[in-house]
Write a structure and sequence with these properties.
The protein has 9 helices and no strands. The chain is mainly α and 176 residues long. Helix 3 packs antiparallel against helix 4 and helix 5 packs antiparallel against helix 6. It is globular and about 50 Å long. The protein starts with a helix and ends with a helix.
Length: 176
C-alpha cells in the first residue's frame, strides 16, 4: 500500500528530517509505485500539481530557515513524480542547505535513472560526489557527461582535475 507507506515515511521524516534510511525507503517506494517508466500525462499532471510548491512555497520556507518543512514540500512533489527534475533539484537545494549531501545524492541517483541524459542533474551529482570524497563515482558521472557532450571542454577539464585528485588521494594512502 504505497499511500500508507508515503504517509508513514513522511510523518517520520517530519519528526526526524535527517533520517537518511527513511528518506531512501521513501524514494524507493516512490519509484516502485510508478514502475520503470512514467507517462507524459503523469509527468505533466505532477508538474502542474507541484509547480507552486517547488517554485514558490518551498523556496519561501527555505528563506525563513525552515529546512525540514521545505524538504517535506519537496518530498510531496517527488511523490507525484519521482523523475521530476525541478522537484529533485529543489530537494537537492534543501538537503544541501540542511547539510545532508547524501540525501541529495540519493535523490539525484534515483532521478538520473529516468533522466540519464539530463546534463544539469548529472553535473550536480558529480559535484556532490566530489564534495563527499567519492572521487571514483564523480569520475564515472563526469565521463558520462563527457560522452553526452563531447565538445564541452569543461567536462574534459573536470575529468582531468578529478583524475589528478584521485591519484593524489591514492598516493597519500600508499604512503600512509
Amino acid at each position: 500500500n504505497y499511500t500508507y507507506a508515503f504517509q508513514m515515511l513522511r510523518t517520520l521524516l517530519r519528526a526526524e528530517p535527517g533520517c537518511t534510511e527513511a528518506r531512501l525507503a521513501l524514494r524507493l517506494a516512490q519509484l516502485e509505485s510508478h514502475g520503470s517508466t512514467i507517462s507524459t500525462g503523469t509527468k505533466v499532471s505532477a508538474f502542474l500539481k507541484s509547480a507552486f510548491a517547488i517554485f514558490v512555497k518551498g523556496p519561501g520556507l527555505l528563506k525563513k530557515g525552515l529546512v525540514g518543512e521545505a524538504l517535506d514540500v519537496a518530498e510531496q512533489a517527488m511523490q507525484e513524480d519521482p523523475s521530476s527534475v525541478p522537484a529533485v533539484m529543489f530537494l537537492v537545494r534543501c538537503a544541501v542547505a540542511a547539510g545532508w549531501p547524501m540525501v541529495a545524492i540519493n535523490s539525484l541517483e534515483a532521478t538520473s535513472r529516468y533522466n540519464q541524459r539530463h546534463v544539469k542533474t548529472l553535473q550536480k551529482l558529480a559535484d556532490l560526489y566530489e564534495k563527499v570524497g567519492d572521487l571514483s563515482k564523480a569520475i564515472q558521472v563526469t565521463q558520462q557527461l563527457r560522452t553526452l557532450k563531447p565538445n564541452e571542454l569543461s567536462f574534459d577539464n573536470a575529468l582531468k582535475q578529478l583524475t589528478a585528485k584521485a591519484a593524489l588521494e591514492d598516493g597519500k594512502r600508499e604512503q600512509a
